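seq:
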Amino acid sequence: MARTLHPHTEGHGDWLGRPQDQVFTVSGTASEAAGDIGALSTAGADTVVLRIVGAEPLSQLESVLRALGR
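struct:
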């Protein structure tokens, strides 16, 4: 999967100040994405940047934030 998504994540490490192997993607429903974000946090991530792709990005963001309890 990482190989497939590489064109979409390439370069993000540069502006985030992180090596490419520390750039991850999450997808799915809001609760699935929230679960993946929680797993990243549990694994030691201290920052997660959400970059919403697709239709109605604000609604998608709000759904993920609700699923995170925020």
